[in-house]
Amino acid sequence: MGAILSLKNIGFSYGESWALKGLDLEIRSGELLGVIGPNGSGKSTLLNIIDGILIPQEGEALLKGIAVSSYNRSSLAKEVAMVAQENHFRFSFSTLEVVYMGRFPYLDRFQFEGKRDMEVVYKALADTQCIELSKRSIHELSGGEKQRVLIARALAQEPTVILLDEPTSFLDLKYKSEIFNLISSLAHKAGLSVLVVSHDIDLTARYCDKMVMLRDGRVFSTGAPDEVITASNIEAVYGCPVIVDKNPVSGSPRVSLR
Amino acid sequence: MTDTTIEVPLGPVRVVRISLLLCVFLALTIFISLLLGTADVTLDQLWGLFVGDPDVKETVRLIVFKIRLPRILLAGLVGFSLSLGGVVFQALLRNPLADPFILGVSSGGAFGAVLGIMFGLGFNFGIPLMSYAGALLTIFLVLEIGKKKMGMESSTILLTGVIINAFFTAIIMFFVSTAVDDRLHSMLFWLYGDLSQSNYNQSVIVFPFVFTGFVVLYGLSRHLNLITAGEETALQLGVDVKKAKLICFLTVSLVVGLVVAFSGLIGFVGLVVPHLGRMAFGSDHRLLMPVSALGGAVFLIAADTLARTVVSPSELPVGVITAFIGAPFFIYLLKTRGSKWARS
Amino acid sequence: MRVRFFIIIVIGLIIFCWINVPAAATFKDALGRVVTLKVPPKRIVSMAPNLTEILYYLGLGNRVVGVTQFSYYPPEAAQKPKIGSYINLNVEKIISLNPDLAIGTADGNKESVVKLLGQAGIPVYIVNPRKVRDVISTIAALGELCGIKEKAKDLSSCLGKRVDYISKRTTGLRQPLVFLQINVKPIMTVNRNTFHHDVIRLAGGENMSQDESVTYPRISVEEVIKRNPAIIIISSMERGGRFEKARQGWFKWSVIQAVKERRVHLVDSDLLDRPSPRIIEGLEVMARLIHPEAEWDLRRSND
Questions:
Q1: Residue ranges per domain, chain C?
Q2: How many CB pairs under 8 A join B and C?
Q3: What is residue A121's predicted lDDT score, i.e. its pLDDT?
Q4: Cβ contact (<8 Å) for B38 and C222?
Q5: Which residues contact C281 (CB under 8 A, 6 or more apart)?
Q6: By C-alpha distance, which of C297, C303, C300, C292 is closest to C203?
Q7: Distance (Å) from the C-alpha of residue B323 to the closest C-alpha of chain C?
Q8: What is the pLDDT of residues B124-165, one digit of tens each?
Q9: Residue A218 pairs with which residues in a beta bridge?
């Protein structure tokens, strides 16, 4: 089974220097891939290349074997869903209305939502435990609830790939693990390809099947979490001395400052 | 555990039902406005006119059909367009303080009209033409300057609009300060909205534009829903944001520029009515658009009727009435919802 | 010998100066202000277009050294140096013209300007005509102020006779309702506090909007239809153009009596809106339009 998403030798520049250079990355279906790296290492740029907002100057990004740039916006939205870091709703929408937004690529210009859309949205809400939140305004939700709703919206797109940009940054501890549990089940149970960018090295290492560590726009290390999360790697990329040991319960790598 | 059934958030039935309700309300407003004015028109006479009773006085027939009705129709079309433009720009710019004039179309139109008044052109044809030319000029300027940057970036076109407004307003002020007598009065009343002496030709010219504009914009209603959630979000959900913004901007500007050429500048309609619509029916533009547009028509017809009855036999510029009603309401909105707007 | 010669020179000089020094005189202007100036004033600044007209009418055009922006009548006046508009006078310019008299109007000129001119030592005489007959008395007063009392008295009494003639012929006649339109869009008219109103009244008509509270009220077509005037006069600023269009525009409202009888006329606004000698002309035009049935024998020349 080939890779759903395959990036080869990607190079992208905003103008002066290369934000990404010679970047290779692959993700299969049912795989949870964690991308870590210090600020400015190109993580957000990477996500924007995968969801087609930025077009790389070098290399190719293939989704299901076809170049990402050759998809039109609508068809790309049916394959790739993104949960962004910042989500500000200017006007008040209900949770239900927000999740239904994910159905946009499936509807014609003057068409209203129908039975199939209802079913997809219901399932998305159920999978993210958001059904009770349906009627509430998005402005009233807590951080964790809002995040789940946005993941539900992503699911409503019926994508093959889900991208998450620092989904747990602003969340309390309890909700951090809740979200990671959720995205883990999306990959392992629902069979989606999930790529999560995070600052939370421990959590990412605990849940992800594969990890990619970026430095200065290049892949510094890739592989299983305990291969990637080593003291020497962290020190080289983040520039600070650490101790890496194993979490006694889960066995996944645990990083502590020295 | 209760099983919440999932419905679609908005169905066509609800949209049609509420729109029809508003249409009925509009018809009622038109009817009442036909009865009110400087001269007396009684219910019997109005009814008589509608059923074709030949006994109704010629004066009454003249007043209802030649003076009041054309004016009411134009007011309705103008109110419809301004509110529609307001709701679209508020979504496009993700700014609850936006109105259809924020991107400069109005000041260009005003500049054209003031020039036309200076040259002594006629109010039936010459001045609206000059006004529309001015509006087109500003549309062109905004597009040129806006395109240079990352494709119609919202903050860029907003800033361009503000600068254009300031520039043309300064020129207009110059003309106003050097104008004399009747030209000065005409300019001032144009700048505050003047629906007096309207005729059917104006409505006939305006209607196809307004109708087409509505259809085009309604086709983008779902796009606008997504754009209000964030431009990148909308992109990721499959919206061609740049194209949507361009079409919306052009359509609104062309329609608003046209109606303003006939009615002068009438503020607050495009700012306040969309918020009323949102408060009553939510932010889904598939419902909000027809609600705002029809609501705008009702609002302006009512305001214009007030303008011509409150100090009868004299008349106030309709923009004064809309400001008197709109401003306090807007302050109320700011107090109750301002915190929500301030967020992000 | 030399001393006597010297004394004769000095006495001669004194006599010379005494003959040529202008006498100073004191007047009271329309606001009751006491104005002292050297008579006759030779360098006069006119601070409103109607005052310029009056000065030229009195034959004092050659003494005028400064006029306001819109002083186009008579055409020669337009050649004179400009001192700003009558609402926005340029004090510096006035002072630089070194006038020995400035004539102003209470309706428009700013008090602060008058004060400044006073401080600069320039006598300022303010007029305040409010009715047609005030214009005539103003002409006489200005004539006296400028040292041509007799001539001014003749001219003004001639004007007065013309007004009397009209007034006499219209007394007792039924007063038709007159609608005077001074603006095209929006439609604006005049109340009783205007010259237009006084002209209508003297010409034997009734001003439709005389009881409005605003001086230049904006009214609707509905109101005109409702009041049904017998005559519609449009005060026009130019020949043809938008005013003629406005006149044509009235013909679609055939229920109005004025329209039915085709009594919709354009009258040059200069003849109706300003306190100048031409307002008498305006009165004559209006009288003919309002009471065509009376036989008018109006000699236009001043006699």
A1: 21-128, 174-290
A2: 86
A3: 94
A4: yes
A5: C271, C300
A6: C292
A7: 19
A8: 788 899 999 999 999 998 888 877 665 567 778 888 888 889
A9: A215
- Touching subunits of B (3+ CB pairs, under 8 Å) are A, C
Q: How far apart are CA B185 and CA B123, in angstroms?
A: 13
DSSP bridge pairs for A195: A33, A163
Beta-bridge partners for C178: C207, C231
The residue of chain B with its CA nearest to that of A154 is B237
d(CA A51, CA A60) in angstroms, rounded, equals 13
Whether C152 contacts C140, CB under 8 Å: yes
Q: Which of B58, B63, B120 sits opposite C222 (nearest CB)?
A: B63
Residue with tokens 């006597």: C4
| Residue B196 with chain C: CB contacts under 8 Å | 185-187, 220-221
CB of C241 less than 8 A from some CB of B: yes
Q: Which of residues 182-221 of C touch B (CB under 8 A)?
A: 182-188, 212, 214, 216-221
Going by C-alpha positions, the residue among A252, A161, A186, A217 that lies closest to residue A37 is A217
User: Do chains A and B meet with 3 or more Cβ pairs nearer than 8 Å?
Assistant: yes
Contact criterion met (CB below 8 Å) for B255 and B47: no
Q: Lay out the sheet containing A5-13: strands in order across.
A: A18-27, A5-13, A58-63, A66-67
Per residue in A154-180, pLDDT (tens digit) is 999 999 999 999 998 888 888 888 899
- B14/chain C closest Cα distance in angstroms: 41
φ/ψ region of A32 (left if φ > 0, alpha if ψ in -120 to 50, else beta) reads: beta
* The two three-digit tokens of residue B174, written as one number: 């110059």
CA distance B187 to C152: 41
Contact C260/B at CB under 8 A: no
B59 neighbourhood in chain C, CB within 8 Å? 225-226, 255
3-class state of residue A115 by DSSP: helix
Query: Nearest Cα to B116, choosing from B99, B102, B101, B133?
Result: B133
| Distance to chain B for A44, nearest Cα, Å | 13
> Which letter, b or e, does each residue of A80-91 get, where b requires 16 or more Cβ atoms within 10 Å of its Cβ?
bbbbbeebebbb
Phi-psi region of B186 (alpha: psi -120 to 50; beta: other; left: phi over 0): alpha
Burial category of A197 from C-beta neighbours within 10 Å (exposed 0-12, middle 13-18, buried 19 and up): buried
| CATH no., domain C174-290 | 3.40.50.1980
pTM of the model: 0.85
Amino acid at B158: L
Can C21-128 and C174-290 be said to share one CATH topology?
yes
The CA distance from C130 to the nearest CA of chain B, in Å, is 19
Residues of A in contact with B94 (CB under 8 A): 90
- CA angle at A22 for the pair A17 and A24, rounded to the nearest 5°: 135
* Mean pLDDT to the nearest integer, C129-152: 93
Pick the residue of B237, B291, B340 with the most A CBs within 10 A to test the interface with A by mutation: B237
At C267, the amino acid letter reads V
Neighbours of chain C (3+ CB pairs under 8 A): B
User: Is B76:B206 a contact under the CB 8 Å cutoff?
Assistant: no
What residues does each domain of chain A span? 87-158
Give the burial string for B31-65 (b: 16+ CB within 10 Å, else e): eebbeebbbebeeebbebbeeeeeebeebbbbbbe
pLDDT by residue (tens digit) across C159-171? Answer: 999 999 999 999 8
With CB atoms and an 8 Å threshold, state whether B229 touches A87. Answer: yes
Domains recognised in chain B with CATH numbers: 12-338 (1.10.3470.10)
Residue C244: closest CA among chain B residues belongs to which residue? B122
The CATH code for residues C21-128 is: 3.40.50.1980
A with C: touching (≥3 Cβ pairs within 8 Å) = no
State the average pLDDT over residues C149-163: 93
